[in-house]
UniProtKB/TrEMBL annotation:
The chain crosses the membrane at residues 60-77, 97-117, 129-150, 156-179, 191-212, 224-246, 296-316, 328-351, 358-375, 387-407, 419-441, 447-470. This is Major facilitator superfamily (MFS) profile domain-containing protein. Keywords: Membrane, Transmembrane, Transmembrane helix, Transport. It is a multi-pass membrane protein. PROSITE patterns: MFS. Signal peptide: none annotated. It comes from the Eukaryota. Residues 64-475 form the Major facilitator superfamily (MFS) profile domain. InterPro entries: MFS (IPR011701), MFS_dom (IPR020846), MFS_trans_sf (IPR036259). It is found in: Membrane. It holds the Pfam family MFS_1.
């Protein structure tokens, strides 16, 4: 057949050709299409590629995870130190009522929640996201240290709002940042590492607070003021140091060799159609796509319910103190539950990655949490109540790890959409921390708190089950081969690149 007689490509072939010809202009680099292996990798045997991949992941784990983990520890210490300060007299010194203290706790989220979305949109357009995160760490450390200077309730509220605005950068940014480097099979355990760091922060924060509060009265400064000064100053110092070591995106990372950089990009491209920092999708387009996806709306509701259950972290020292111990012993007793939670998180995500499952672990954890909520509602026995306190951190917060894993794998592309989705789910879900802060009264039973959390847990199970039905239905549509049904799945967030890759919703 002559060239003039050649048949035109089919629509599917035409799309494939366009994808193959696609290039990225990010930082002046040109990348191959998602399904074309770089020349530097083609010449390697399968064994050599696997060895190179293991070396790359090991380098990421030794560089990225420790930095992000340390920063998350600081994030939680600085966010939770107000709860520890309550046991050392901040409410008396500032003449705060119980309701005013609850407002001081919850007001942080007024600044924290709305700024997550613009921050995560911005981080997708910045060539050095690591530097962006570290600068935010140094700034919030300064603000946290400045809390030591407040003398009135109004001043405390003002500082807390500003602190929330700056801290909005970190968590959704860190979740997005990790998903830019790790594949879906690797991501679960790295999210677990992030949450393990959170629990270390909670545990260490209680122990550290118990030690620092012994400085009460030194140089005429109250113990709770020393707590803010020391923890805030340490955050500034460590944030500045980490800025020199935090890597960029895979395609422009200076810590990798050329072969490792190409492998890092190809690993992500081969899963989802594009690497981070290489798409030209506008932030506004990603925002609209995120809002139009019903899966994201269900994820928001799930996270609202999950964050409500996780609100116990904001009042954990108060819950432990209700057992009848003094403030120092209460702070020390907050450590073991968090250490246990960190251990459980590791095995939870190991199991999730190994079995490629999320739904059943979520339902199991929620069911355990419901039992733990009922215990303090029905008994004042110290042993039974502390057993409940030991289990609650991992049972009530554990589902959040699995939700963020779901978001980053089910709402993978475009990049801007995933960044918006991650921030929206966290931001709107985080509003639970505002209203839930007013539930923790009438100890030791805390009827309002544990009654509400039980209702949230039951609704959570229902919502995640509806989500499971929805994604399994879309998988059936994509498996059907019927273009009409495939089109329906694409209307709910599946891109053409994903279809070409034979992509499916997993873990449910």
């Amino acid at each position: 057949m002559t060239h003039d007689q050649a048949e035109p490509p089919s629509p599917k072939e035409d799309i494939k050709m366009k994808i193959d010809d696609a290039v990225s202009s990010a930082e002046g680099q040109v990348h191959t299409a998602y399904d074309r292996m770089p020349q530097s990798l083609i010449g390697l045997s399968e064994v050599d590629r696997e060895a190179l991949n293991k070396k790359l992941v090991r380098k990421l784990d030794y560089t990225i995870l420790p930095i992000v983990g340390i920063l998350y520890i600081l994030n939680y210490i600085d966010r939770q130190n107000l709860a520890a300060a309550k046991l050392q007299g901040i409410t008396q010194d500032l003449n705060m009522s119980t309701t005013q203290f609850a407002t001081a706790v919850s007001i942080l989220f007024v600044g924290y929640l709305p700024f997550q979305i613009p921050s995560n949109l911005l981080i997708t357009k910045i060539s050095r996201p690591g530097m962006y995160i570290c600068v935010a760490v140094a700034i919030w450390g300064s603000i946290s240290a400045a809390t030591a200077a407040v003398n009135t309730y109004s001043q405390l509220v003002g500082v807390r709002v500003i602190l929330g605005v700056v801290e909005a950068v970190f968590f959704p940014g860190a979740v997005y940042y990790l998903s830019a480097w790790y594949t879906k099979r690797e991501l679960g355990k790295r999210f677990a590492a992030l949450y393990i760091a959170q629990q270390v922060g909670n545990a260490f924060g209680g122990l550290f607070a118990a030690a620092v509060l012994q400085l009460d009265g030194q140089r005429g400064i109250a113990g709770w003021r020393w707590l803010f000064i020391i923890e805030g100053s340490a955050t500034v110092f460590i944030g500045v140091i980490c800025a020199f070591f935090m890597p960029e995106f895979p395609h422009n990372s200076r810590m990798l060799t050329q072969a490792q950089r190409e492998l890092a990009v190809w690993r992500i491209e081969s899963e989802a159609g594009a690497a981070e920092g290489t798409e030209n999708e506008s932030a506004w387009s990603g925002f609209k796509q995120a809002l139009s996806d019903p899966k994201m709306l269900l994820m928001i509701l799930c996270n609202l319910l999950s964050q409500a259950q996780g609100s116990i972290a904001n009042y954990f020292p108060t819950l432990v103190n209700s057992l009848g111990y003094n403030s120092t012993i209460s702070l020390l007793l907050t450590a073991p539950p968090y250490i246990l939670a960190g251990i459980v998180y590791y095995f939870l995500m190991y199991y999730s990655d190994r079995k490629n499952t999320v739904y059943f672990p979520i339902v199991t954890l929620i069911s355990i949490a419901i039992i733990m909520y009922i215990i303090p509602l029905t008994t004042t026995n110290v042993g039974a109540r502390y057993f409940s306190i030991m289990i609650l951190p991992f049972a009530s917060v554990g589902p959040q790890l699995l939700l963020y894993k779901t978001i980053n794998l089910h709402l993978a592309r475009p990049v801007a959409k995933r960044a918006v989705a991650s921030a929206l789910v966290n931001a709107i879900g985080g509003t639970s921390n505002i209203w839930a802060s007013y539930l923790y009264y009438q100890g030791p039973h805390f009827y309002a708190a544990f009654g509400t959390l039980t209702a949230c847990a039951l609704l959570f199970i229902l919502t995640i089950t509806v989500y499971r039905w929805l994604v399994r239905r879309d998988n059936r549509y994509m498996d059907s081969g019927d273009q009409t049904l495939i089109a329906k799945a694409m209307k709910r967030g599946v891109t053409e690149e994903m279809i070409q890759l034979n992509w499916r919703y997993e873990m449910y």
